[in-house]
Amino acid sequence: MLFPGYEQQMHWYVMRDLKRSNAKLPAYKQLSDEHIEVFTPMQWRLSLKNGKRIREEVPFMQDLLFVHDTREVLDQFVRKIPTLQYRYLKGGGYCQPMIVSDLDMERFIRAVRCSENPKYYLPDLQNQGVGHPLFGNMEGANHINPYAIMTSGYKDYSRTNISAQAEIEQNLDFITEGLTVQGHFSTVRRSYFDVSRSYTPYYYKIGFYDKESDNYVLQALNPDSGTEYLGYSEGPKDVYTQIYMQAKANYVRKFGLHDVGALLVYQRKEELLGNAGSVIKSLPKRNQGISGRMSYGYDSRYFVEFNFGYNGSERFAQNERYGFFPSIGGAWMLSNEAFWRPIEKVANKLKLKVTYGLVGNDAIGSDSDRFFYLSNMNMNSSGRGQVFGTNWGNYKDGISTVRYPNEFITWEVAKKLNIGFELGLFNSLDVQFDYFREDRSKILMDRSFIPTTMGLEASVRANVGEAASHGVDLSVNYNHWFNNKIWLQGYGNFTYATSEFKVADEPDYAAAGLPWRSRVGYSLSQQWGYIAERLFVDEADIANSPVQSFGTYLPGDIKYKDINKDGKISDADLVPIGYPTTPEITYGFGLSMGFKNWDISCFFQGSARSSFFIDSEQIAPFNNPPSTTGSYTRKTALFQAIADSYWSEEHRDIYAFWPRLSTESIKNNTQVSTWWMRDGSFMRLKSLELGYSFPQQMIKKIHLTKLRLYANGTNLLTFSKFKLWDPEMGGLGVGYPNQRVINFCLLYTSPSPRD
């Protein structure tokens, strides 16, 4: 449905012009003459006028144009120009014009207008009769021409989602008061497929150009691979089904000052993929379990609760399949005690609480590790193949081991402790504080120190890892009316969480003289890397430095520190650097206040104690990034920060931001190191809004029930030591950043017809 004020807002409307292609004044020209912003993809066309060949720019599709203005303004031109019409959405039940978001329109215009070469050429003399567009490209025809891709074909797809559920509930008060039973069944069916039809564009470049006659000769770049017909290609298919069953019995009863409750739940879930890709993944996934809860409360002051889960997983052997995970918790509401009444006007609420229990996790390994207790063999392994027979003319694939069976792999178990309190002050301020700790054991890890003399083909895994985490969680909310004209709301949250490995399956680094390589005692997201000292000055500097084992390196490349003093830079020199990549501190706070009819609100969010590493391969200028799309090659653009500070023969700055420039990736310079490490801390003004609500006495005169004028914005300011791009993007600066949005709105509500 269209919201109030929709017609007064500017949008990109999709419209059509029914004039003939040779009309003297098409709609896009009429609108442009009225200073209306119009965009339509254009093309060059050769035509004869007065016996002369002339080149003119005409719409690529005569009946397609995009117009940027309000519905109120455009309706006037639609009434005035009979051949100008809106394009409407299908299936809406009402006439709703098609619109394109500002962001999508910006991308579309850029794709049409931007290319390293012209999006297409006008035919030269030798290509006058060709039946295909002459798209521009570069040598090799493997660069992206957005216009050619956009116009080369189409894709049809079908997506189906079906869900159904049934539920039955029965009150058993006739047996005992407060007892109910419930049954639930649900199923989900999902399917998707797509079909693409497209031709392979013919690409050209200018082979010869005569400046005097303004004539050129085109050179075909892919004369043998281009097509003039629509091909056929099937896309991925997705078929999925899920069945879920649940039975529940619940008992809730109050006896005087006593509150008792009990809950017992049985659940079973089954999932099936139609295109899983392997035999193991195609088998139905099943798990089931029983969970329960028993609770008791006395006089709204003392509370105790016991929970348990008895869960089964198909991933483990029969002896390890089921796990029992209990927990217990208690709370004391001090503010309901008689001795609290003298101070209840100051501290209206105080609750102490503590919980402790076990939690099991069977989501370990990968989707291929469905059954740890079974071996997984590759019966057609080319790596184990053999050549035999006369003149070695026959070949047969061999057999290799993908996974060894292990009947002892079982649930990961976490012991969780939570201690906290809830405090209310002056009936305005609410504070919640929690201290939490988790000790996780039986973590699945690859056995990393198995001698090669054992002759094992696949890695061996076991539940040997141990880790711990702890932290605090704090939230504060304030809400108060000072009088009938002024109100104030404040809120904030703060979380500190850190983790560390207690036991890790790793070599005895201390005995090897490499204690800094051990992960024990460090965060689970701690990064290991090299300490970068500076850039190499010249060949003499390289000759007098430890040998670096990362391929060829030259003056201007990164010089690393030899930690173990063995005269070479290798894995033995990796040390923990920076903070963990996961922030250890996250926080947010906001404020809202109002005075009479005015209101203002803002919210800040941020994080601290984290590091990220610039992905130098992705931003290296003039290079092909690793994630090249399809068969097309894209070159990385030059960042301004690199242009401002880089090492060169003329300016040998050993502390420049960017090392030696190259058209190829330099492995020595892409290592994880302190050279690319940056502080990930930031604080962001996430939202800000200022509004004014018009008085009721005023808006009643214009037959409205509500009228509010406001302006808001998101992601307006970011405070960070890192200035190259949004720090929340991490190490990849070429991704799509957080959008900064500013809105100016008028919201009104009309009385209902009954009023």
Overview of the molecule:
The protein has 9 helices and 39 strands. Among the domains are: 299-524, TonB-dependent receptor, beta-barrel domain (Maltoporin, Chain A); 532-749, no CATH class. The chain has an 18-stranded antiparallel sheet that branches. It starts with 9 loop residues before the first strand and ends in a 6-residue tail after the last strand. It has 755 residues and is mainly beta. A hairpin with a 7-residue loop joins β10 and β11 (179-198).
CATH-defined topology of the domain at 299-524: Maltoporin, Chain A
The CATH class assignment of the domain at 299-524 is Mainly Beta
Fraction of residues in β-strands: over 45%
Global Rg: 35 Å
